Each structure stands twice: as C-alpha cells, then as structure tokens.
Amino acid sequence: MNKTLFEISKMDCPSEENLIRIKLDRISSIANLDFDIPNRTLTVFHSGEIDQIEKSVLELNLGAKKISTEQTDQAEFKETANQKKLLWTVLGINFAFFLIEMATGIISKSMGLVADSLDMLADSFVYGISLLAVGGTITKKKQIAKLAGYFQITLAIIGFVEVLRRFFGDEKLPDFSTMIVVSILALIANGICLYILQKSKSKEEAHMKASMIFTSNDVIINLGVIVAGLLVNWLSSSKPDLIIGTIVFALVIQGAFRILKLSK
C-alpha cells in the first residue's frame, strides 16, 4: 500500500472535498481518502502508481500539488458511520437557505442576496451529486453533474442580465436591513455546515475549525453582501449591491464549470 500526500491550495470547504471525492471515485486502486481542509491537504492511500490519481486531481484546477509518496503498512481505515446523514443535513441547510435568500432577495430587490442564494444552491448540487449517485454508475454520475452544471450556469446568466437591467434602469434601492440580517443568518448557517462536516475528525482542534470557517469562500461572500448592504444605506445607491451580485454570479459560474469537469 502507498500513501501520497497532496497540497490543494483552493480546497477551502467541504464543497471542494466532495468534488474531489466524485472525481476520484472511479479509480479502483484508491483504498481511502483522508482530507484535512484547514491545512488544505489530501492523503490518498492507494495501490500501484499515482499517475492516474495525480492527473485526475490536477484536472479539477484546485491548485493541487503532489508533496510526497511513500509506502505504508496501514490497511484498515475507520469510516464515518453517519457520513451520509451528515451530507443530507448540510444539503438540507444549504437548500433551505437557497430558498430563503432567493425569496428575500426578490422581495428586498437585492441582487446580492439572489446571487448568494445561487451559491448556496451550488453547494447543494455538489452534496446532492455525491448522495444521489452513491452506488450508481460513472455514467449516471456524469449525467447528474452535467445537468447540475448547466442549470447553475443558466441561472447565473439570468442573474447577470438582471444586474445589467438594474444598472442602467431606475430601480428602487434594495432593503439594506434585509440584506444584512439574512446574510448574517446565512453566515451562521455556513459555519454550522462546516462544523457538522468536520466534527467527526477528532484530530482537529477548535482553532483549526475556526480557521477553516473564516477562510471559506462562502463566508467571504456572506460578509461581502453585509458590507454591500451597509454601503447601500450609506451611499443611498444600489451600485454596491449590483457589484457584489456580479462578483458572486461570476463565482457561481466558476463553480459550475468545476462541476461540469466531472461530466467529462
């Protein structure tokens, strides 16, 4: 048995972990995957050569770099008994906040909240792909990934069009208080999701979990919407909301292309 350590600089949260798991699922030589999100590392236990595994990881464009490969006597691995239950829990939280942010975003006329809701939906897609395709064929997984990726891109493009319409039109200012309150709740929800997914890893200390949460792209987006809400109120302008919305839509499309890579 061999043990290969990868450094993955863009692995910020469990969403990227699930993308990697799905990508590597088809490689039969892999015995186990051990993720350390706070330190952005992945340890792959495998038989045979590392070439196919390394190529698959690099194709995801997550800043992966092989650090070392060595032999190991480890042959048994402790699996998390409630992994599927945890995935269903975080999927439910993400999808619930997709609905909440989409509804409040439309009502409050905030493109930042609408865009953030799509980011929540993107995470739901990743967890959903992992769960719905468990035990399924590679073809089934590719079909699900392709459908999710294109649907996500379509929604983001519609969002971009709406941003342009509002930028050149004379729209009512978004409700900044709704933007801030809902984004704070989404921030808490993201923190809960990340904690739930990592709580079974006893090797992680509390400060490591905090480090993981506050370096997450999702958390940064939530903070961006909060700042945009403050600027909307301060400047009496909808431009900060439109700017953060545009940035998040771009991130959503970037995530969609990562999902589409799984369908190739």
Strand order of the biggest β-sheet = 2-3-1-4
Strand content: 5-15%
Give Rg in angstroms: 20 Å
Sketch the major β-sheet. Answer: 4 strands, antiparallel
C-alpha end-to-end distance? 29 Å
Number of helices: 9
The string of secondary-structure elements, in order, is EHEEHEHHHHHHH
Mean pLDDT: 79
Helicity, in percent?
A: 55-70%
Structural class designation:
alpha+beta
**Number of DSSP strand runs:** 4
Shape: elongated
Unreliably modeled segments: 202-215
Q: How many domain regions?
A: 2
Domain Cation efflux protein transmembrane: 88-261
Pfam family, one: Cation_efflux
Subcellular location: Membrane
Organism: Winogradskyella aurantia
Write a structural description.
With 264 residues, this protein is α+β, with helices and mostly antiparallel strands. The chain has two domains: 2-68, Alpha-Beta Plaits, CATH 3.30.70; 83-261, no CATH class. Helices cover 65% and strands 11% of the residues. The chain has nine helices and four strands. It has helices spanning 14-24, 51-58, 83-108, 111-132, 138-168, 176-198, 206-214, 217-235, 239-261; strands at residues 2-8, 30-36, 41-46, 64-71. It has a four-stranded antiparallel beta sheet, covered by helices on one side. Helix 4 (111-132) packs antiparallel against helix 8. Pfam families: Cation_efflux.
